[in-house]
Amino acid sequence: MENYTDALTNVSPYATLLSAIAMMFVGSMWYSSFFFGKAWARLSGIRMGDIRPDEARRGYLFATFFSLLVAYLLGIVAAHAGANAHALYGAVGMIWLFIMAEQANGFIWEKQPFALFLLQAFRSLFSLLAGASVFLFWS
Predict the structure, then answer these.
(1) Cα–Cα 20 to 30 A to 76, which of 1, 11, 53, 102?
(2) Which residues lie below 8 Å from residue 104, measured CB to CB, with a gap of 6+?
(3) Is the pLDDT of residue 8 over 90?
């Protein structure tokens, strides 16, 4: 049991912060107008000019909090995987499959477009890979 406790308490705060920044960077690039931002807005039914500054600030605050949380959880997974890239990326793949199953609910039950599901699912994958890579290179 000591091994599990060590994994919870020995996650590097610096690697966690860098991992969260990497995941947020992937998200900001993914949803930029240069990549998939216009398609995401169209598929979501969102007009970018309609987003108020206070809504944007609140959204970024929540995104930052959850990026830090996911980065910490990735740190725990990375602590168990050690320097084994196959174990870490395999665990990321399993986490991503769970996320895809959850995101599929929007497509299945909320009648969201399948293309929106794919955009969100693959953003999750690349964000997780970026965050996990920070821990892999940190170790």
Answers:
(1) 102
(2) 117
(3) no
